[in-house]
Design brief:
It is a single chain. By secondary structure, the chain is mainly α. Helix content is 47%, strand content 5%. The longest helix has 17 residues. It is globular.
Length: 164
């Protein structure tokens, strides 16, 4: 089963709460209490988001965390890559360059590349704002994706790169 880990899901919950807090400086405990997530989990998430520049932290009595960026400027792909690592569907697409041992005789590797690139492009073009908007229906979200006129690049037979 292809499934996100809990940290990715929880990170979205944390960022959503922070976005609704009017840019107030929030402690780990405040975020934990308001979201229902365990404090150690919130602490790990905020530390990771801070190291990636999505939130900023200030130590001390009046310290806490604030969002550095608007949720309209943060893609779902960015969050997933922070907490999941590279989005790779099969070994032949491993971004470390460790190709599958069957790659030279495989007839479907290039097609997996298309599937993987398509998923990445869609996730890159969806923002957390769209995910968080309570007024946005699933149908509207799908229409937004279609209206963005996402351009899927053409992959030549000789292209061995797996970049978007």
């Amino acid at each position: 089963m292809l499934k996100l880990n809990k940290m990715s899901d929880y990170a979205a919950v944390v960022i959503n709460y922070m976005d609704k807090s009017n840019n107030d400086r929030l402690s780990t405990e405040q975020v934990s209490k308001s979201t229902g997530l365990p404090s150690p989990t919130v602490s790990k998430i905020l530390h990771r988001l801070s190291s990636e520049g999505i939130v900023s932290s200030l130590r001390g009595r009046s310290g806490g965390y604030t969002l550095n960026r608007e949720v309209s400027d943060i893609s779902i792909l960015e969050i997933l890559q922070i907490f999941e690592g590279p989005i790779v569907l099969t070994d032949c697409l491993d971004e470390k360059g460790e190709a599958c041992v069957f790659l030279s005789s495989c007839s479907i590797a290039g097609k997996w590349e298309v599937v993987s690139s398509t998923i990445k492009i869609v996730l890159e073009n969806l923002t957390l704002k769209e995910l968080f908007d309570p007024k946005m229906s699933k149908e509207t979200l799908l229409n937004n994706i279609n209206n963005k006129h996402i351009k899927f690049h053409s992959i030549s037979e000789k292209d061995t790169s797996y970049d978007q």
